[in-house]
Amino acid sequence: MSDLNPFKWWQRLLARPNDDLLKTLVVAFLVAFTASIFVSLAAVYLRPFHVANLEQERQARMAAMIATLPGMEDILSSSGVDAMEVHLVDLSTGAFATHLDAGTYDQRAAAGDPETNVEIPSDADVAGIKQRAPYAPVFILRKDDDVHLIVLPVRGVGYQSMIYAYLALNADGNTIAGLTVYEQGETPGIGARVLEPAWQALWPGKQVADESGAVQITVVRGEATSPFEVDGISGATRTGNGVSNMLHFWLGDFGFGPFLERLREGEI
Amino acid sequence: MQHSMKYLVDPLVKSNPVTVHILGICSALAVTTSLSTALTMSAALTVVLMLSSASISAIRNHIPTSIRLIVQITIIASLVIVMDMFLRAFAFEMSKRLSIFVGLIVTNCLVLGRAEAFARQNPVWPSLLDALGNGLGYSAILLIVGAIRELFGAGALLGYQVFPLIENGGWFQPLHLMLLAPSAFFILGFLVWVIRVWRPEQNEEPEFNLLSSREKGRS
Q1: Phi, then psi, of A182 in degrees rounded to 5
Q2: Within a domain: A180
Q3: A70-119: pLDDT as tens digits
Q4: Cross-chain residue pair A42–B86, CB shorter than 8 Å
Q5: CB–CB of A39 and B78 under 8 A?
Q6: How many domains does chain A have?
Q7: Rounded Cα gap, residues B93 and B90, in angstroms
Q8: Of residues A71, A265, A93, the one with CA closest to residue A176
Q9: How far is residue A134's CA from residue A255's CA, in Å, rounded to a whole number?
Protein backbone atom coordinates (compact mmCIF):
# COMPACT_ATOMS: atom_id res chain seq x y z
CA MET A 1 0.00 0.00 0.00
CA SER A 2 2.99 2.27 -0.47
CA ASP A 3 1.60 3.72 -3.69
CA LEU A 4 -1.68 5.53 -3.11
CA ASN A 5 -1.98 7.05 -6.59
CA PRO A 6 -5.62 6.24 -7.48
CA PHE A 7 -4.88 5.76 -11.17
CA LYS A 8 -2.24 3.17 -10.46
CA TRP A 9 -4.53 1.52 -7.95
CA TRP A 10 -7.27 1.42 -10.56
CA GLN A 11 -4.95 -0.05 -13.18
CA ARG A 12 -3.76 -2.70 -10.76
CA LEU A 13 -7.36 -3.56 -9.99
CA LEU A 14 -8.25 -3.93 -13.63
CA ALA A 15 -5.19 -6.07 -14.18
CA ARG A 16 -6.40 -8.60 -11.62
CA PRO A 17 -7.93 -11.76 -13.00
CA ASN A 18 -11.70 -11.67 -13.56
CA ASP A 19 -12.46 -14.29 -10.91
CA ASP A 20 -10.61 -12.34 -8.23
CA LEU A 21 -12.81 -11.64 -5.18
CA LEU A 22 -11.84 -7.99 -4.73
CA LYS A 23 -12.36 -7.23 -8.40
CA THR A 24 -15.72 -9.02 -8.36
CA LEU A 25 -16.88 -6.91 -5.42
CA VAL A 26 -15.63 -3.64 -6.86
CA VAL A 27 -17.14 -4.28 -10.30
CA ALA A 28 -20.45 -5.36 -8.76
CA PHE A 29 -20.55 -2.21 -6.67
CA LEU A 30 -19.63 0.07 -9.54
CA VAL A 31 -22.18 -1.45 -11.92
CA ALA A 32 -24.95 -1.20 -9.32
CA PHE A 33 -23.92 2.33 -8.38
CA THR A 34 -23.81 3.58 -11.98
CA ALA A 35 -27.11 1.93 -12.83
CA SER A 36 -28.82 3.42 -9.77
CA ILE A 37 -27.51 6.91 -10.51
CA PHE A 38 -28.73 6.59 -14.08
CA VAL A 39 -32.22 5.43 -13.05
CA SER A 40 -32.50 8.04 -10.27
CA LEU A 41 -31.55 10.89 -12.57
CA ALA A 42 -34.13 9.79 -15.13
CA ALA A 43 -36.79 9.47 -12.42
CA VAL A 44 -36.09 12.95 -11.05
CA TYR A 45 -35.96 14.67 -14.41
CA LEU A 46 -39.02 12.94 -15.87
CA ARG A 47 -41.19 13.27 -12.78
CA PRO A 48 -42.87 16.58 -13.75
CA PHE A 49 -43.97 15.00 -17.02
CA HIS A 50 -45.40 11.96 -15.21
CA VAL A 51 -47.30 14.13 -12.76
CA ALA A 52 -48.76 16.24 -15.56
CA ASN A 53 -49.80 13.14 -17.48
CA LEU A 54 -51.51 11.58 -14.46
CA GLU A 55 -53.37 14.78 -13.69
CA GLN A 56 -54.60 14.96 -17.27
CA GLU A 57 -55.69 11.35 -17.07
CA ARG A 58 -57.62 11.94 -13.83
CA GLN A 59 -59.49 14.89 -15.31
CA ALA A 60 -60.32 12.93 -18.44
CA ARG A 61 -61.75 10.11 -16.34
CA MET A 62 -63.77 12.53 -14.30
CA ALA A 63 -65.17 14.15 -17.42
CA ALA A 64 -66.05 10.73 -18.81
CA MET A 65 -67.80 9.82 -15.54
CA ILE A 66 -69.76 13.07 -15.56
CA ALA A 67 -70.78 12.52 -19.16
CA THR A 68 -72.25 9.12 -18.30
CA LEU A 69 -74.41 10.47 -15.47
CA PRO A 70 -77.99 10.23 -16.70
CA GLY A 71 -79.40 13.61 -17.54
CA MET A 72 -76.17 15.37 -16.65
CA GLU A 73 -75.37 15.99 -20.27
CA ASP A 74 -78.66 17.80 -20.76
CA ILE A 75 -78.00 19.97 -17.74
CA LEU A 76 -74.54 20.78 -19.06
CA SER A 77 -75.66 21.54 -22.60
CA SER A 78 -78.76 23.53 -21.71
CA SER A 79 -77.21 25.73 -19.05
CA GLY A 80 -74.21 26.85 -21.08
CA VAL A 81 -71.80 26.05 -18.27
CA ASP A 82 -68.14 26.39 -19.15
CA ALA A 83 -66.26 24.91 -16.21
CA MET A 84 -66.92 22.07 -13.82
CA GLU A 85 -65.09 21.23 -10.63
CA VAL A 86 -65.40 18.37 -8.23
CA HIS A 87 -64.75 18.88 -4.54
CA LEU A 88 -65.04 16.66 -1.53
CA VAL A 89 -67.11 18.21 1.19
CA ASP A 90 -66.68 17.39 4.84
CA LEU A 91 -70.35 16.91 5.62
CA SER A 92 -70.07 17.82 9.31
CA THR A 93 -68.54 21.25 8.67
CA GLY A 94 -69.53 21.95 5.08
CA ALA A 95 -65.91 22.80 4.24
CA PHE A 96 -63.95 21.37 1.34
CA ALA A 97 -61.71 18.47 2.29
CA THR A 98 -58.61 19.24 0.27
CA HIS A 99 -56.45 16.46 1.71
CA LEU A 100 -58.37 13.78 -0.21
CA ASP A 101 -58.59 13.26 -3.95
CA ALA A 102 -62.15 13.80 -5.10
CA GLY A 103 -61.46 11.79 -8.22
CA THR A 104 -60.68 8.59 -6.39
CA TYR A 105 -62.75 8.92 -3.21
CA ASP A 106 -65.26 6.10 -3.07
CA GLN A 107 -68.26 7.38 -1.16
CA ARG A 108 -70.11 4.07 -1.14
CA ALA A 109 -67.11 2.12 0.11
CA ALA A 110 -66.48 4.71 2.84
CA ALA A 111 -70.14 4.54 3.89
CA GLY A 112 -70.00 0.76 4.13
CA ASP A 113 -66.72 0.52 6.02
CA PRO A 114 -67.15 0.64 9.83
CA GLU A 115 -63.65 2.16 10.07
CA THR A 116 -64.59 5.27 8.15
CA ASN A 117 -68.35 5.70 8.21
CA VAL A 118 -70.38 7.95 10.44
CA GLU A 119 -73.35 6.57 12.37
CA ILE A 120 -76.49 8.63 11.89
CA PRO A 121 -78.64 9.08 15.04
CA SER A 122 -81.92 7.25 14.45
CA ASP A 123 -84.08 10.35 15.00
CA ALA A 124 -82.13 12.21 12.29
CA ASP A 125 -82.06 9.29 9.91
CA VAL A 126 -85.19 10.09 7.93
CA ALA A 127 -83.78 8.54 4.76
CA GLY A 128 -83.19 5.21 6.52
CA ILE A 129 -79.55 4.87 5.46
CA LYS A 130 -78.11 4.27 8.98
CA GLN A 131 -74.50 5.27 8.11
CA ARG A 132 -72.95 7.74 5.76
CA ALA A 133 -69.43 8.52 4.56
CA PRO A 134 -67.76 11.47 6.28
CA TYR A 135 -67.15 13.14 2.93
CA ALA A 136 -69.25 13.52 -0.20
CA PRO A 137 -68.33 14.80 -3.64
CA VAL A 138 -70.10 17.88 -4.95
CA PHE A 139 -69.92 19.01 -8.54
CA ILE A 140 -69.76 22.76 -8.99
CA LEU A 141 -70.47 24.14 -12.43
CA ARG A 142 -69.32 27.67 -13.06
CA LYS A 143 -70.21 30.17 -15.73
CA ASP A 144 -68.00 33.25 -16.02
CA ASP A 145 -66.43 32.31 -12.65
CA ASP A 146 -69.77 32.46 -10.81
CA VAL A 147 -71.38 29.36 -9.36
CA HIS A 148 -74.09 28.37 -11.78
CA LEU A 149 -75.17 24.94 -10.62
CA ILE A 150 -74.23 22.54 -7.86
CA VAL A 151 -74.87 18.85 -8.17
CA LEU A 152 -75.18 16.73 -5.02
CA PRO A 153 -75.20 12.93 -4.86
CA VAL A 154 -78.04 11.70 -2.65
CA ARG A 155 -79.46 8.33 -1.64
CA GLY A 156 -82.26 7.03 0.49
CA VAL A 157 -84.48 4.04 1.11
CA GLY A 158 -87.62 3.95 -1.01
CA TYR A 159 -90.32 1.29 -0.84
CA GLN A 160 -88.03 -1.71 -1.26
CA SER A 161 -84.63 -0.50 -2.39
CA MET A 162 -81.96 2.14 -2.04
CA ILE A 163 -82.57 4.99 -4.48
CA TYR A 164 -79.48 6.81 -5.76
CA ALA A 165 -79.90 10.17 -7.42
CA TYR A 166 -78.21 13.43 -8.29
CA LEU A 167 -79.86 16.63 -7.21
CA ALA A 168 -78.88 19.74 -9.12
CA LEU A 169 -79.48 23.09 -7.41
CA ASN A 170 -79.19 26.59 -8.78
CA ALA A 171 -76.63 29.00 -7.37
CA ASP A 172 -79.06 30.21 -4.68
CA GLY A 173 -78.89 26.72 -3.16
CA ASN A 174 -82.65 26.62 -2.98
CA THR A 175 -84.10 26.29 -6.48
CA ILE A 176 -84.00 22.80 -7.93
CA ALA A 177 -82.46 22.58 -11.40
CA GLY A 178 -83.05 18.88 -11.80
CA LEU A 179 -83.25 15.49 -10.15
CA THR A 180 -81.96 12.38 -11.85
CA VAL A 181 -82.39 8.97 -10.32
CA TYR A 182 -79.65 6.71 -11.65
CA GLU A 183 -79.99 3.57 -9.59
CA GLN A 184 -83.00 2.00 -7.86
CA GLY A 185 -84.86 -1.28 -7.40
CA GLU A 186 -88.43 -0.13 -6.89
CA THR A 187 -91.45 -2.05 -8.18
CA PRO A 188 -91.32 -2.08 -11.97
CA GLY A 189 -94.14 -0.06 -13.49
CA ILE A 190 -95.00 1.64 -10.18
CA GLY A 191 -92.18 2.95 -8.00
CA ALA A 192 -89.65 2.40 -10.77
CA ARG A 193 -91.40 5.16 -12.69
CA VAL A 194 -89.16 7.60 -10.78
CA LEU A 195 -86.78 6.88 -13.65
CA GLU A 196 -89.19 8.30 -16.21
CA PRO A 197 -88.07 11.56 -17.78
CA ALA A 198 -91.66 12.84 -17.58
CA TRP A 199 -91.65 12.57 -13.79
CA GLN A 200 -88.12 13.90 -13.43
CA ALA A 201 -89.14 16.86 -15.61
CA LEU A 202 -91.51 17.99 -12.82
CA TRP A 203 -88.60 18.92 -10.60
CA PRO A 204 -86.85 21.92 -12.19
CA GLY A 205 -87.98 25.20 -10.63
CA LYS A 206 -89.22 23.71 -7.36
CA GLN A 207 -88.09 25.29 -4.10
CA VAL A 208 -86.29 23.34 -1.40
CA ALA A 209 -86.80 25.38 1.75
CA ASP A 210 -89.15 28.12 2.88
CA GLU A 211 -88.07 31.54 4.15
CA SER A 212 -87.29 30.21 7.63
CA GLY A 213 -84.85 27.72 6.10
CA ALA A 214 -86.86 24.59 6.92
CA VAL A 215 -86.71 21.99 4.16
CA GLN A 216 -90.20 21.73 2.71
CA ILE A 217 -89.80 19.93 -0.60
CA THR A 218 -92.16 16.93 -0.69
CA VAL A 219 -93.53 14.45 -3.14
CA VAL A 220 -97.27 14.64 -2.49
CA ARG A 221 -100.13 12.33 -3.31
CA GLY A 222 -101.88 13.64 -6.37
CA GLU A 223 -101.31 17.11 -7.72
CA ALA A 224 -98.78 19.61 -6.45
CA THR A 225 -100.24 22.87 -5.20
CA SER A 226 -97.18 24.88 -4.11
CA PRO A 227 -93.54 25.37 -5.26
CA PHE A 228 -92.48 23.01 -2.47
CA GLU A 229 -94.52 20.11 -3.82
CA VAL A 230 -94.00 17.62 -6.61
CA ASP A 231 -96.73 15.41 -8.12
CA GLY A 232 -96.66 11.89 -6.76
CA ILE A 233 -96.81 8.78 -8.90
CA SER A 234 -100.11 6.89 -8.59
CA GLY A 235 -99.65 3.75 -6.54
CA ALA A 236 -96.12 4.68 -5.54
CA THR A 237 -96.81 6.65 -2.38
CA ARG A 238 -94.05 4.99 -0.39
CA THR A 239 -91.51 5.48 -3.14
CA GLY A 240 -92.53 9.14 -3.24
CA ASN A 241 -92.14 9.36 0.53
CA GLY A 242 -88.73 7.76 0.16
CA VAL A 243 -87.67 10.44 -2.31
CA SER A 244 -89.01 13.17 -0.02
CA ASN A 245 -87.18 11.72 2.99
CA MET A 246 -84.02 11.33 1.01
CA LEU A 247 -84.03 15.03 0.11
CA HIS A 248 -84.94 16.05 3.65
CA PHE A 249 -82.00 14.10 5.00
CA TRP A 250 -79.40 15.21 2.47
CA LEU A 251 -80.46 18.86 2.50
CA GLY A 252 -80.60 18.81 6.31
CA ASP A 253 -78.00 19.16 9.02
CA PHE A 254 -76.56 15.66 8.69
CA GLY A 255 -76.34 15.95 4.92
CA PHE A 256 -75.27 18.91 2.82
CA GLY A 257 -76.97 21.46 5.18
CA PRO A 258 -73.71 23.04 6.45
CA PHE A 259 -72.34 23.15 2.91
CA LEU A 260 -75.49 24.80 1.52
CA GLU A 261 -75.33 27.30 4.34
CA ARG A 262 -71.85 28.29 3.22
CA LEU A 263 -73.05 28.44 -0.37
CA ARG A 264 -75.88 30.82 0.48
CA GLU A 265 -73.49 33.04 2.42
CA GLY A 266 -71.40 33.28 -0.71
CA GLU A 267 -68.33 31.53 0.69
CA ILE A 268 -68.00 29.21 -2.29
CA MET B 1 -16.47 -2.76 -43.91
CA GLN B 2 -17.90 -5.69 -45.84
CA HIS B 3 -17.29 -7.80 -42.80
CA SER B 4 -18.95 -5.46 -40.34
CA MET B 5 -22.04 -5.02 -42.53
CA LYS B 6 -22.53 -8.76 -42.11
CA TYR B 7 -23.37 -8.15 -38.42
CA LEU B 8 -26.05 -5.72 -39.46
CA VAL B 9 -27.60 -7.61 -42.36
CA ASP B 10 -27.47 -11.20 -41.18
CA PRO B 11 -30.07 -10.90 -38.38
CA LEU B 12 -32.62 -9.38 -40.75
CA VAL B 13 -33.55 -12.67 -42.42
CA LYS B 14 -30.72 -15.19 -42.36
CA SER B 15 -30.52 -15.48 -38.58
CA ASN B 16 -33.61 -13.50 -37.62
CA PRO B 17 -34.05 -13.63 -33.83
CA VAL B 18 -37.80 -14.27 -34.02
CA THR B 19 -38.25 -16.61 -36.97
CA VAL B 20 -34.98 -18.56 -36.67
CA HIS B 21 -34.13 -18.47 -32.97
CA ILE B 22 -37.78 -18.08 -31.86
CA LEU B 23 -36.81 -15.46 -29.25
CA GLY B 24 -38.99 -12.66 -27.93
CA ILE B 25 -42.25 -14.42 -28.81
CA CYS B 26 -44.14 -13.24 -25.71
CA SER B 27 -44.00 -9.58 -26.60
CA ALA B 28 -44.47 -10.39 -30.29
CA LEU B 29 -47.85 -11.85 -29.38
CA ALA B 30 -48.89 -9.18 -26.96
CA VAL B 31 -48.08 -5.90 -28.66
CA THR B 32 -48.95 -6.68 -32.27
CA THR B 33 -52.71 -6.09 -32.18
CA SER B 34 -52.04 -2.80 -33.93
CA LEU B 35 -49.22 -1.40 -36.00
CA SER B 36 -48.64 1.60 -33.76
CA THR B 37 -48.00 -0.47 -30.61
CA ALA B 38 -45.75 -2.81 -32.61
CA LEU B 39 -43.82 0.19 -33.89
CA THR B 40 -43.32 1.68 -30.42
CA MET B 41 -42.31 -1.65 -28.95
CA SER B 42 -39.85 -2.27 -31.79
CA ALA B 43 -38.25 1.12 -31.33
CA ALA B 44 -38.03 0.67 -27.54
CA LEU B 45 -36.50 -2.77 -27.87
CA THR B 46 -34.00 -1.72 -30.52
CA VAL B 47 -32.79 1.22 -28.44
CA VAL B 48 -32.48 -0.87 -25.28
CA LEU B 49 -30.73 -3.64 -27.18
CA MET B 50 -28.19 -1.26 -28.73
CA LEU B 51 -27.41 0.54 -25.49
CA SER B 52 -27.12 -2.65 -23.48
CA SER B 53 -24.95 -4.39 -26.07
CA ALA B 54 -22.68 -1.36 -26.34
CA SER B 55 -22.24 -0.94 -22.59
CA ILE B 56 -21.77 -4.65 -21.90
CA SER B 57 -19.28 -4.88 -24.71
CA ALA B 58 -17.41 -1.85 -23.35
CA ILE B 59 -16.78 -3.53 -20.00
CA ARG B 60 -16.58 -7.08 -21.38
CA ASN B 61 -12.96 -7.65 -20.32
CA HIS B 62 -13.70 -6.79 -16.71
CA ILE B 63 -16.97 -8.57 -16.03
CA PRO B 64 -16.23 -11.12 -13.29
CA THR B 65 -17.27 -14.55 -14.54
CA SER B 66 -19.04 -15.49 -11.31
CA ILE B 67 -21.52 -12.59 -11.50
CA ARG B 68 -21.64 -12.25 -15.26
CA LEU B 69 -25.38 -12.68 -15.71
CA ILE B 70 -26.30 -10.44 -12.79
CA VAL B 71 -24.14 -7.63 -14.15
CA GLN B 72 -25.73 -7.97 -17.58
CA ILE B 73 -29.26 -8.06 -16.17
CA THR B 74 -28.56 -5.03 -13.97
CA ILE B 75 -27.47 -3.02 -16.99
CA ILE B 76 -30.40 -4.18 -19.12
CA ALA B 77 -32.93 -3.63 -16.33
CA SER B 78 -31.85 -0.07 -15.63
CA LEU B 79 -31.98 0.76 -19.33
CA VAL B 80 -35.48 -0.70 -19.54
CA ILE B 81 -36.67 1.25 -16.49
CA VAL B 82 -35.41 4.47 -18.02
CA MET B 83 -37.02 3.59 -21.36
CA ASP B 84 -40.31 2.88 -19.61
CA MET B 85 -40.14 6.23 -17.80
CA PHE B 86 -39.40 7.99 -21.08
CA LEU B 87 -42.45 6.48 -22.71
CA ARG B 88 -44.62 7.35 -19.72
CA ALA B 89 -43.40 10.94 -19.87
CA PHE B 90 -43.60 11.59 -23.60
CA ALA B 91 -45.96 8.95 -25.00
CA PHE B 92 -48.37 8.41 -22.13
CA GLU B 93 -51.27 6.98 -24.14
CA MET B 94 -48.96 4.57 -25.92
CA SER B 95 -47.30 3.46 -22.69
CA LYS B 96 -50.74 2.69 -21.24
CA ARG B 97 -51.52 0.50 -24.23
CA LEU B 98 -48.18 -1.29 -23.99
CA SER B 99 -48.71 -1.60 -20.22
CA ILE B 100 -46.34 -4.14 -18.72
CA PHE B 101 -44.68 -5.19 -21.94
CA VAL B 102 -42.10 -2.43 -22.03
CA GLY B 103 -41.01 -3.46 -18.54
CA LEU B 104 -40.87 -7.05 -19.71
CA ILE B 105 -38.13 -6.18 -22.21
CA VAL B 106 -35.86 -7.02 -19.25
CA THR B 107 -36.85 -10.64 -19.60
CA ASN B 108 -36.92 -10.60 -23.39
CA CYS B 109 -34.55 -13.43 -24.28
CA LEU B 110 -33.43 -11.46 -27.28
CA VAL B 111 -31.66 -8.78 -25.23
CA LEU B 112 -29.90 -11.08 -22.82
CA GLY B 113 -29.26 -13.50 -25.68
CA ARG B 114 -27.35 -10.94 -27.72
CA ALA B 115 -25.46 -9.74 -24.63
CA GLU B 116 -24.44 -13.28 -23.74
CA ALA B 117 -23.80 -14.58 -27.25
CA PHE B 118 -22.24 -11.58 -28.92
CA ALA B 119 -21.54 -8.42 -26.92
CA ARG B 120 -19.62 -10.30 -24.21
CA GLN B 121 -17.00 -11.46 -26.73
CA ASN B 122 -16.85 -8.65 -29.29
CA PRO B 123 -15.69 -5.03 -29.42
CA VAL B 124 -18.14 -2.17 -29.11
CA TRP B 125 -18.66 -1.32 -32.78
CA PRO B 126 -19.52 -4.84 -34.01
CA SER B 127 -21.72 -5.29 -30.92
CA LEU B 128 -23.60 -2.12 -31.74
CA LEU B 129 -24.12 -3.23 -35.35
CA ASP B 130 -25.19 -6.69 -34.23
CA ALA B 131 -27.67 -5.15 -31.77
CA LEU B 132 -29.05 -2.81 -34.42
CA GLY B 133 -29.39 -5.69 -36.87
CA ASN B 134 -31.17 -7.87 -34.34
CA GLY B 135 -33.40 -4.99 -33.29
CA LEU B 136 -34.34 -4.36 -36.90
CA GLY B 137 -34.91 -8.08 -37.51
CA TYR B 138 -37.22 -8.24 -34.51
CA SER B 139 -38.92 -5.02 -35.60
CA ALA B 140 -39.47 -6.32 -39.13
CA ILE B 141 -41.32 -9.39 -37.85
CA LEU B 142 -43.31 -7.37 -35.32
CA LEU B 143 -44.34 -4.84 -37.95
CA ILE B 144 -45.40 -7.53 -40.42
CA VAL B 145 -47.46 -9.32 -37.77
CA GLY B 146 -48.85 -6.02 -36.46
CA ALA B 147 -49.80 -4.82 -39.93
CA ILE B 148 -51.59 -8.08 -40.80
CA ARG B 149 -53.42 -8.18 -37.48
CA GLU B 150 -54.57 -4.56 -37.57
CA LEU B 151 -55.51 -4.70 -41.26
CA PHE B 152 -57.66 -7.82 -40.98
CA GLY B 153 -58.75 -7.40 -37.37
CA ALA B 154 -59.89 -3.80 -37.61
CA GLY B 155 -59.63 -2.92 -41.30
CA ALA B 156 -57.16 -0.17 -40.45
CA LEU B 157 -53.46 0.63 -40.58
CA LEU B 158 -51.94 2.95 -37.97
CA GLY B 159 -55.51 3.89 -37.04
CA TYR B 160 -56.30 4.97 -40.60
CA GLN B 161 -59.32 3.09 -41.96
CA VAL B 162 -58.24 1.15 -45.06
CA PHE B 163 -61.23 -1.16 -45.51
CA PRO B 164 -64.64 0.43 -44.84
CA LEU B 165 -66.34 -1.62 -42.11
CA ILE B 166 -69.78 -3.15 -42.55
CA GLU B 167 -71.00 -1.39 -39.42
CA ASN B 168 -70.14 1.94 -41.07
CA GLY B 169 -71.80 1.03 -44.33
CA GLY B 170 -68.75 -0.53 -46.02
CA TRP B 171 -68.08 -4.09 -47.07
CA PHE B 172 -65.41 -5.36 -44.66
CA GLN B 173 -66.34 -7.71 -41.83
CA PRO B 174 -63.44 -7.57 -39.31
CA LEU B 175 -61.90 -10.89 -38.30
CA HIS B 176 -61.97 -10.68 -34.54
CA LEU B 177 -59.69 -13.69 -34.26
CA MET B 178 -56.92 -11.44 -35.55
CA LEU B 179 -57.12 -9.35 -32.38
CA LEU B 180 -56.65 -12.41 -30.16
CA ALA B 181 -53.25 -13.82 -29.21
CA PRO B 182 -53.58 -17.11 -31.16
CA SER B 183 -53.66 -15.28 -34.47
CA ALA B 184 -50.14 -14.00 -33.79
CA PHE B 185 -49.02 -17.63 -33.49
CA PHE B 186 -50.66 -18.46 -36.80
CA ILE B 187 -49.04 -15.51 -38.56
CA LEU B 188 -45.63 -16.20 -37.00
CA GLY B 189 -45.86 -19.85 -38.04
CA PHE B 190 -46.84 -18.80 -41.51
CA LEU B 191 -43.88 -16.39 -41.70
CA VAL B 192 -41.46 -19.07 -40.51
CA TRP B 193 -42.83 -21.39 -43.18
CA VAL B 194 -42.52 -18.78 -45.96
CA ILE B 195 -38.96 -17.88 -44.96
CA ARG B 196 -37.91 -21.53 -44.82
CA VAL B 197 -39.36 -22.24 -48.25
CA TRP B 198 -37.36 -19.28 -49.53
CA ARG B 199 -34.23 -20.23 -47.57
CA PRO B 200 -34.27 -24.02 -47.12
CA GLU B 201 -30.91 -23.93 -45.28
CA GLN B 202 -32.81 -22.74 -42.18
CA ASN B 203 -34.62 -26.05 -41.88
CA GLU B 204 -33.45 -27.92 -38.82
CA GLU B 205 -32.56 -31.59 -38.80
CA PRO B 206 -35.50 -33.49 -37.32
CA GLU B 207 -34.70 -34.57 -33.77
CA PHE B 208 -36.54 -37.85 -34.22
CA ASN B 209 -37.07 -39.70 -37.47
CA LEU B 210 -40.58 -41.06 -37.76
CA LEU B 211 -40.66 -44.74 -38.59
CA SER B 212 -42.62 -45.68 -41.65
CA SER B 213 -45.65 -47.85 -40.94
CA ARG B 214 -43.96 -50.98 -42.27
CA GLU B 215 -40.99 -50.53 -39.94
CA LYS B 216 -43.34 -49.86 -37.06
CA GLY B 217 -45.07 -53.18 -37.69
CA ARG B 218 -41.75 -55.00 -37.48
CA SER B 219 -40.57 -53.41 -34.27
Answers
A1: -120, -10
A2: yes
A3: 555 665 666 556 667 788 899 888 888 888 877 678 788 888 888 888 88
A4: yes
A5: yes
A6: 2
A7: 9
A8: A71
A9: 10
